[in-house]
């Protein structure tokens, strides 16, 4: 008899938590009807869908919400959330969630949580999650920041190139340069590693021909290539044009033959 009384008291003590669990599981049902795992590139729009069912035995008004990752910043809902939806007894509705992945989002797996809360009884709620896998993207850019318009034959000239990692992961890059005419070109540095969103200034030094007889144009072709063969060849090319002028020879420096 004493054991029965103790069991009854334990049951009464646990009753509120049991009721809450049942209400959360059976009163409101939400089921993901799109993919559980979505792979996508940064800067793209994701759409998911849920089937919401009312099993409460009464009309209900639900507060709908969507929890997006807070890191990194920039996850943006396309549709406004924190909104109310009404469901009659045994009624079902399909709900869509649409949001944008940040353009600079690092590679990784991110959790998205959709929630529904009963406005009459806030303790009754239902949640469902899915995951977004942000794929690595290799994207580079090269900006010519400084170059000479005119160079005197025999002098060295310098070109400043800013290399930019516009992808979402750390990338190793290699630079090569070749000119026409084929002057010596030194690239410093010719290999560099850049974090996502970062940039670095690259210096190119070109030696010209002191024996140049006539004015010419020097065309410098610069090729920057990301060393990420698993994504194919990712490269960017830039062309720099500079005019090479011959040295002026003073008439007084011309020797005069004796008579």
Write the layout of secondary structure elements.
Layout: H1 2-27, E1 28-32, E2 37-40, E3 45-54, E4 60-67, E5 76-77, E6 83-87, E7 92-100, E8 108-118, E9 125-134, E10 140-146, E11 150-152, E12 156-165, E13 171-180, E14 185-188, E15 191-194, E16 199-207, E17 216-226, E18 234-245
Parallel strand pairs: 2-9, 11-18
Antiparallel strand pairs: 1-3, 3-7, 4-6, 4-8, 5-7, 8-9, 10-12, 12-16, 13-15, 13-17, 14-16, 17-18
Textual characterization of the structure:
With 259 residues, the chain is mainly beta. It folds into 2 domains: 107 residues, Sandwich (Immunoglobulin-like), CATH 2.60.40.10; 106 residues, Immunoglobulins (Immunoglobulin-like, Sandwich), CATH 2.60.40. 10% of the residues lie in helices and 52% in strands. It has 1 helix and 18 strands. The strands form 4 sheets. A 5-stranded mixed sheet has the order 2-9-8-4-6. β8 and β9 form a beta hairpin. The chain starts with a helix and ends in a 14-residue tail after the last strand. The N terminus is likely disordered.
């Amino acid at each position: 008899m004493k054991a029965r009384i103790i069991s009854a008291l334990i049951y009464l003590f646990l009753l509120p938590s049991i009721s809450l669990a049942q209400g959360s599981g059976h009163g409101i049902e939400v089921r993901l009807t799109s993919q559980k795992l979505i792979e996508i590139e940064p800067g793209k729009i994701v759409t998911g869908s849920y089937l919401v069912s009312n099993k409460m035995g009464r009309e209900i008004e639900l507060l709908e919400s969507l929890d997006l990752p807070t890191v990194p910043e920039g996850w943006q809902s396309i549709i406004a959330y924190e909104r109310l939806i009404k469901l009659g007894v045994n009624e079902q509705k399909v709900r869509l969630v649409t949001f944008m992945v940040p353009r600079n989002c690092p590679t990784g797996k991110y959790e998205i949580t959709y929630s529904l809360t009963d406005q009459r009884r806030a303790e009754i709620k239902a949640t469902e999650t899915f995951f977004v896998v942000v794929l690595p993207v290799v994207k580079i850019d090269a900006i010519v920041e400084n170059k000479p318009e005119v160079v005197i034959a025999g002098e060295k000239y310098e070109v400043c190139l800013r290399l930019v990692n516009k992808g979402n992961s750390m990338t190793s890059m290699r630079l090569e340069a070749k000119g026409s005419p084929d002057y010596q070109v030194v690239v410093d540095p010719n290999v560099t590693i850049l974090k996502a969103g970062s940039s670095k200034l690259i210096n190119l030094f070109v030696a010209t021909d002191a024996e140049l007889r006539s004015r010419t144009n020097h065309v410098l072709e610069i090729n920057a290539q990301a060393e990420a063969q698993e994504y194919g060849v990712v490269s960017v090319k830039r062309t720099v044009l500079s005019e090479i002028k011959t040295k002026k020879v003073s008439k007084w420096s011309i020797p005069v033959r004796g008579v």
